Amino acid sequence: MILRLEAKKCRRTGFFPAVLLAACAASAFPILNMLVRAETFTAMAGAPFDILTDANWQMMAMLNILLAVCGACLLYHTEFADNGMQKMDVLPVRAGSLFFGKFVLLMLALFGVLFLETAVLGACAAHWFSAYDWSPQDLLASVGFQWAITFPTVMLMLVIASACKNMWVSLGIGVILVFTTTVFPQGSLGLQLCPFSAPYQTLAAVQSAGKVPLFLGVCAAETVVFGLCELIYLKVRRRFA
Amino acid sequence: MNMIETQNLCKSYGNFAAVSDLNLHIRKGRVYGFLGPNGAGKSTTMKLFLGLTQPTSGSFQIDGMQYPADRVAILKEIGSFIEAPAFYGNLSGEENLEIIRQILGLPKSSVSDALELVGLTQFRKRAAKKYSLGMKQRLGLAGALLGQPPILILDEPTNGLDPVGIHEIRTLIRSLPQQYDCTVLVSSHLLAEVELMADDIGILNHGRLLFEGTANDLKIRAHDAGYSTDNLEEIFLSMIDEDNRKRGAER
To answer: Which CATH topology does B2-250 take?
Structure first.
């Protein structure tokens, strides 16, 4: 029920068009790249899907993270703009449930986006690389991995958005975090595992380093920790209201 | 039987006591008018009942349930409207009420009933952010009245309404205990309005309850104290003035 309510609250906010726009923009990137530089990539040695992912994922992941930032800000702006949240506070529904409803909604939207992006990468590989062996399982594994390592970023961004009444503050913090992670060297494993940085990793790269369980485990732990932080924050906010 | 009862309820913000040793007794099936000047602690008291803010000390029970242990169960029984209308501006009036309906698990017809009750039926499809102040106020009231809850907490519900709207809402509030067997706690600074709709009156000043009882009790008390008893406004002003003088002398 909460998920349906959260989806209903998003009507006419621009949330769903934003998701669609981000999905289209990120999916168009590998197509444009191949249209312009097909020879460069087809001449490379290696698995076609991995070549395309290596070449395009940094930009696609950044668009995905920006979508998570904008989505979280929009979801909470709707709550704060006309005191909708205050109405929810006096209804028999837990504030934590509403937060996790938003999290699930944003994660489902991102799953759709990642699915489309991966399908486009697969289609590009099939179209431009004659040797490409289409494997739905591999594509789904890639979608699943990318989705799982996005969890802490979305959770943290929602925590930030829930704490800022002014949407521009949470949006500013989110954008700063997006660009801060790109400044740090990507070689450090510790930094790779951080929210806002993890979604840049690709399954092929992590698999070759043998760190898939580590990434999944750490991202799951980060998600739980940020979720608990939100629950504590909600209790503190109520206590000091 | 008391529907809402408080025992030495206090709420302080630092050194400032917004509510001080409040002992309220709101009887079932009555309209309780909560009077007080701005900053007297009326809204704070109502927020305490709804769990929007935590008491510094003291306790209260609503319909026999204890806060904070039964907070969610208490909220199921209360329809509320606090300070300003709270809604989702991107949604229509009907969609706003639909959200509340789903949370409360009410039948679908309750939304149209509530819209009809506050006179918003013809504007139900319009985005709430495009409503006038009076319409927003009515939407807030519709949200409170949805499903005919046994307890209604209304903080200055006629703010922003025109004289016709004030009359309609006052008549509606007056009729609620008979129609739906509910208890109403309503605050207002419009004294004549409270006089017309309330069965019981509580007067609050600087967080302290100066009087609690029926309008007749108030007149008797005013007469005994030597105040003018021509109308409620005179009595109210005299009580507040005397309390303020006493406080000044104490300092």
So the answer is: Rossmann fold (3.40.50)
H-run or E-run covering B147: none
Is the per-residue pLDDT at B249 higher than 70? no
The domain spans of chain B are: 2-250
Q: What's the rounded Cα separation, in Å, for the pair A150 and A147?
A: 5
Residues 6+ away with beta carbon under 8 Å from B64: none
Find how far residue A183's CA is from the centre of its chain: 19
Interface test with A, best of B82, B90, B152 (most A CBs within 10 A): B90
Q: Are strands B151-155 and B78-81 parallel, antiparallel or unpaired?
A: parallel
Contact B147, B79 (CB under 8 A): yes
Mutate one of B91, B141, B151 to test the A interface: name it (highest A CB count within 10 A): B91
Are A84 and B87 inside 8 Å of each other by CB? yes
Q: Tell whether B196 lies on the interface with A, counting CB pairs under 8 A.
A: no
Question: Can you tell me the ipTM of this complex?
Answer: 0.87
Report, as an integer, the average pLDDT of B196-207.
91
What residues in B contact A94, CB-CB < 8 Å? 72
